[in-house]
Amino acid sequence: MAQTIRAEMVASVHSIIMAQGDSVVVGDTLAILESMKMEIPVLAEENGTISEISVAVGDVVREGDIIAIII
């Protein structure tokens, strides 16, 4: 079953750590968001393979926006 990773707050995408096709385990950092000069890691919440990265560096995400999908 696919897991959708969503933004928890309004932030800009500072960096993308993982790429489509990468294997991840719980706790791996997928991306780094930046909000109010704080860096917020976006972590994998289950083991799997990244099937999609839905953001790019510099994008502004809002709460609930899809960042990645893990299958």
Structure description:
The structure is a single chain. With 71 residues, this protein is mostly beta strands. The chain has a single domain, classed as OB fold (Dihydrolipoamide Acetyltransferase, E2P). Helices cover 0% and strands 54% of the residues. The protein contains no helices and 8 strands. The strands form 2 sheets. A 4-stranded antiparallel sheet has the order 1-8-6-3, with no helix packed on it. Strand 4 and strand 5 form a beta hairpin. It is globular and about 30 Å long. The mean pLDDT is 96.
Helix content: under 10%
CATH level-4 homologous superfamily: RNA polymerase II/Efflux pump adaptor protein, barrel-sandwich hybrid domain
The rough form would be described as globular
Chain-averaged pLDDT:
96
The DSSP helix count reads 0
CATH architecture field: Beta Barrel
- CATH class reads Mainly Beta
Keywords:
four-stranded antiparallel β-sheet, single chain, globular, mainly beta, 8 strands, OB fold (Dihydrolipoamide Acetyltransferase, E2P), 71 residues
SSE order and pairing:
Blueprint: E1 3-6, E2 11-16, E3 23-24, E4 29-35, E5 38-43, E6 48-53, E7 60-61, E8 66-70
Antiparallel strand pairs: 1-8, 2-4, 2-7, 3-6, 4-5, 6-8
Concise summary:
Helices cover 0% and strands 54% of the residues.
